[in-house]
Amino acid sequence: MWESLFRWGAKHIFVIDIHGDQQHGDALIGAIRKTRQTLNIDVRSVIANLLANQLGITKDQEEFLIFDIDFSFDSFEPPPHFPDFHAGAQGTARFLKYFPDLVKQEKIKELSPRLLSKEDQEEWQKGGERTKSIAPKGYVGNPQGYTPFLAEDKLDFISGFIEFASREILHYLRTQSKKEN
Questions:
Q1: Measured between alpha carbons, how far is 180 from 17 in angstroms, rounded to an integer?
Q2: In the chain, where does DSSP find H-type helix?
Q3: Whether the predicted model's global pTM rises above the 0.70 cut
Q4: What element of type H or E holds 46?
């Protein structure tokens, strides 16, 4: 796919991946590195500073474009106080906002919080049967804990990601344009 974009003259390719699966992320980074080496094209994974900090990724790593999330925005939903990374409060709220017909709201009331220890989180990342044994109902977090940030003036995760990532991409492209001229 990236080779095709390269043939069409693309100079910069930005990969947006919010899936969060470690194997998925490792495969993408491997593909980005290979593409950068073989085609000599600027391909980068766009990630938030919060995730970069957790993973030990720094701004000098060429495979990444790291953007800062400004939590001083009055309308931005703050991060949860505990791990809530798969179909928890934030995921439930996102689905209620973007796909309300797919949410069985009566079922949410039956789902008590599922919080993982650090060790369980590491096992969760391995996927497969290990993940199923740790979270048999398929969620981690607190689906009941979603907040009514569904109002249009609120920046949820998706809107916030788009807002701050696009600002950083534009800033990056402007600085690259100056270097090329």
A1: 28
A2: 2-7, 22-39, 49-55, 89-98, 105-108, 118-124, 128-134, 157-180
A3: no
A4: strand 42-48
